[in-house]
Design a protein that fits this description.
Blueprint: E1 9-14, E2 16-20, H1 28-31, E3 44-47, H2 53-64, H3 68-71, E4 75-78, H4 81-90, E5 95-99, H5 100-103, E6 112-115, E7 124-128, H6 137-148, H7 150-158
Parallel strand pairs: 3-4, 3-5
Antiparallel strand pairs: 1-7, 2-5, 2-6
Amino acid sequence: GLAERQTLYTYAFGRLALWALPEEHLHLAEKGLSALLDPKVQKIAIANPEHAPYGKAAVAALQKTGIYDQVKAKFVFGENISQAAQFAQSGNAQVGIIALSLAISPAMQQGDRWLVPADLHPALEQAAVVTSASTNKSAASFFLDFVKSAQGKEILAKYGFTMTQAPSGGK
């Protein structure tokens, strides 16, 4: 009852990426998730899977590829995906399993990254609603219309979001 049900809209799907500082020399583009098995990887930053969708997706991808049990002791949990990215960016973890949108951000775009295939994890659905308590429902609806527009979709794609949950991999 807190949202205007008819306004619920899935506007995009997020993607997971492995990300590391270039000086880690993990060769993520060639090794993919197997880079996590490298002995120099002592810490892997992920969002806390207890409450963060990107953390749950990271665990699912590792389980599906069969390396979860080999790497789970290396996890350092961020409270959210942004904090997990900060752990990797600061070097407090050798690698992070983070949102592609963060991995391609200006602050992180020079890092080594690899796009985790979407078929390895549950969909990272990004959705929006207009809240029932909104004092400016017309502006909120106008914004949702913009997000649904070709221009809105183009902006989302530029920042690493897809409009469908289509499997793919690579950098």
